From TrEMBL:
PANTHER family: LIGHT-INDEPENDENT PROTOCHLOROPHYLLIDE REDUCTASE SUBUNIT B. Keywords: Nitrogen fixation, Oxidoreductase. It comes from the Bacteria. It comes from Beijerinckia indica subsp. indica (strain ATCC 9039 / DSM 1715 / NCIMB 8712). CDD domains: Nitrogenase_NifN_1 (cd01966). This is Nitrogenase iron-molybdenum cofactor biosynthesis protein NifN. The keyword Cytoplasm does not apply. This protein may play a role in the biosynthesis of the prosthetic group of nitrogenase (FeMo cofactor). GO terms for molecular function: nitrogenase activity. InterPro entries: ChlB/BchB/BchZ (IPR050152), Nase/OxRdtase_comp1 (IPR000510), Nase_comp1_CS (IPR000318), Nase_Mo-Fe_CF (IPR005975). PROSITE patterns: NITROGENASE_1_1 (PS00699).
Length: 459
């Protein structure tokens, strides 16, 4: 059981975490014909827009109420109203998802009241769905913004149903955590469909940010789950929630429509995938398809091959809480030692991380603790620490802006875990010290006979 600690610094030096509004906006991007809207300054929105564009390498729909200093002091109703009207009339959005920011939260804007007033003054916009989520960026983090947004979408848009109402035995509602990529969702979709189900993902980033080329240009999201599909989620046979932070959304759907749910707080590795497959077998009444059995055998073989290279390796991980928990336990299963675990915010799941302690901190803390480790795992902002420490970096999380294919990284299921083992083991193989004749002889000018050997073995 890990001990959770907090840094005592006066400020964050090199941020690890992304803000709540960014997490909320990304959740809205998994809905068809949606437009996320930041209620705040233009700078807040520009930051999020650049972040997503660099990560996904796609056109990103994101708008702002463009609050100035005067508007912030006097109140932002006119800005909210104008933004909703413009987005509805010009960009034809079916859903406008409003996320608050630090400046408007500090002011105390009552956005729910603003929305009611907009509804009264603009009845011609009744066909546009409006969802507001309180996501101040001076507290919590990316994962929390995603969690709140998905729960609010369910509370606002799903049609209520009695718990004993008839259900569609083929429909499965899937509530993926913020740490799952479009590639992960595609993998989960393949697995669930193999058991005869029709999964609906909320949000569905695999439908909107998977890098496909649309037939026509649209200023809103390119795909994802539709508003009609969200409204009818209440007749799903079961809900599958992935990540401990998705319990809130699963509870909301259960309360709204009586849909039972199963929470999987891990989805990377052999045992978590076994549990997932066993659950699908149980609720479907069908045997495990042969292709999935074969994938399991491939993962077991990959674990056997990979553990020679991963066993005993010291790892430093800096990720959001649920991602940290999932990935660190998978690596511990592969024989790694989790020497450094740094995350963005305190959650109950951190107690179960297989490390002596977990620090809620930033990338400066991460770099300070990492010397002596064999591998760093965090997003692309860890590249400077990797260069300074001469420790290889394996990029995971968001953002990854200095590599292609970030949206297609897949780590869940048997195939995802298999490929993850190969990628990590290959890093160790690539950086493995190989003894050469020069290893045993000092370079000219070396002060000590062992200096050159030490330099070679360090890298």
């Amino acid at each position: 059981m890990a001990i959770v600690k907090f840094n005592k610094k006066a400020c964050t030096v090199n941020p690890l975490k992304m803000s709540q509004p960014v997490g909320g906006a990304l959740a809205f991007m998994g809905i068809k014909d949606a437009m996320p809207l930041f209620h705040g300054s233009q700078g807040c929105t520009s930051f999020g827009l650049v972040l997503f564009v660099r990560h996904f390498k796609e056109a990103i729909p994101l708008q702002t109420t463009a609050m100035s200093e005067v508007a912030t002091v006097l109140g932002g109703y006119e800005n909210v109203e104008q933004a909703i009207v413009n987005i509805s009339n010009k960009q034809k959005a079916s859903l406008i998802g409003i996320c608050s920011t630090g400046v408007t939260e500090t002011k105390g804007d009552d956005v729910d009241a603003y929305i009611k007033l907009v509804r009264q003054q603009h009845p011609e916009l009744d066909h546009v769905s409006l969802v507001y989520v309180s996501t101040p960026d001076f507290k919590d983090a990316f994962q929390d913004g995603w969690e709140k947004t998905v729960a609010k979408i369910i509370e606002t848009l799903v049609k209520p149903r009695p718990a004993d109402a008839p259900r569609n035995s083929r429909k499965i509602a899937v509530l993926p955590g913020s740490h799952l990529t479009p590639g992960d969702l595609d993998e989960l979709r393949d697995i669930i469909e193999a058991f005869g189900f029709d999964p609906l993902f909320l949000p569905d980033l695999a439908g909107s940010l998977d890098g496909h080329i649309p037939e026509d240009f649209t200023p809103t999201t390119l795909g994802g789950i539709s508003l009609d599909e969200i409204a009818d989620l209440g007749d799903a046979f079961y809900t599958i929630a992935i990540g401990s932070h998705m319990r809130t959304a699963a509870e909301a759907l259960k309360e709204k429509a009586g849909v039972p749910y199963q929470l999987f707080d891990r989805m990377i590795g052999l045992l978590p995938t076994d549990d997932f497959i066993a659950f699908l077998t149980q609720i479907s009444g069908k045997p495990v398809p042969n292709k999935i059995k074969r994938q399991r055998g491939q993962l077991v073989d990959a674990m056997l091959d990979g553990h020679f290279h991963t066993g005993g390796k010291k790892i430093a991980i800096g990720l959001e809480p649920d991602f940290l928990y999932d990935l660190s336990n998978f690596l511990a299963d592969m024989g790694c030692q989790i020497e450094v675990a740094v995350t963005t915010n305190q959650t109950a799941i951190l107690d179960q991380v297989r490390s002596e302690e977990v620090l809620v901190g930033d990338l400066e803390d991460f770099e300070t603790l990492a010397p002596g480790c064999d591998l760093l795992i965090t997003h692309a902002h860890g590249r400077q620490a990797s260069e300074r420490l001469h420790i290889p970096l394996f990029r995971m999380g968001l953002p990854i802006f200095d590599r292609l294919g970030a949206g297609h990284i897949t780590s869940v299921g048997y195939r995802g875990a298999r490929d993850l083992i190969f990628k990590i083991a290959n890093i160790f193989i690539e950086n493995m010290h190989v003894a050469k004749p020069d290893t045993w002889y000092p370079h000219p000018g070396a002060e000590e006979g062992h200096a050159s050997a030490d330099k070679l073995t360090t890298h």
